[in-house]
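Data availability (excerpt). The following record was deposited with the supplementary files.
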Amino acid sequence: MEVAERFPRLGEMADIYRGLKWWKQGGGLSKSPREGFAPGVFKPADSLNQFYLNKLVYLDVSPEAAMRPAPLTRAWDQPKVLTNVARLSRGPWRMAAVSDKSGLVASQAFFGIWPTSDKLPLEALEAILNGPLANAFLTERASNQHFTNELLKLLPMPKRALDRVLEAVRRYRAACAAARAEALKRAGSDDVLNRLLVEVDAEVLRAYDLPPRLERRLLEFFRGHEHERRVDHPFRGWLPEDFTAYMPLHEYLGPLVERNRGAWALEAFTPVPEEEVELLRRYIH
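Predicted structure:
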């Protein structure tokens, strides 16, 4: 069964547009406030991490400086998610996304994504785009180092409610903000942030409701690339290397429910059938 039959696509639930482009690209940027300029972001390499923007600048929003008028008409003052146009690494961590409610504008190096469905809350979209399934999809589908609006529109979105995702994102963002506010990080703070980020990913995957073996195969796709993830702290991955059970990540993190242990063990440790591996390929292709 094709992914379109399983999940809605991002293009059905959001508007996606590129940012501003100027006749003189360098002239569109200012590091200090100027008349006709608005706060924004210019280069993902300088400003974009997953869930966090820094190094804000000022961008020219005057019509006479714009190479194309359409980007100026976008709803930059409205809540949106900002993400990169060019891949962030050669490995599977291709994308970083951050929600913005402050009205930032962005250069053409960014996409602005505005949810149009109540079923896709802003912070949940941010978490989905930062998660493993979206990044694996882009790794498999992008034909060059730049993404397109049309490719992003094809990203599969979860069918399940996203309340748990929102709660996990808010816990993680609050902890990151607290860590950044400290002059010196407390001992073990990186471990706490890593655990909270893993909880975000686990809730996103719960919302997709992939078969456990397929979810595990997806996570293994990122093994060895943990350092490439653009987050504000070290990312250490989801599961220990010696963990062999095929179980949903959210179950691994939480207390295991009572069940028939013998039957569960037989299912959990059985090698992945080849037909299920092929099914995973269809999820991300």
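Summary of structural features: Strands lie at 14-18, 29-30, 37-41, 48-49, 52-53, 57-60, 80-84, 97-100, 105-106, 110-115.
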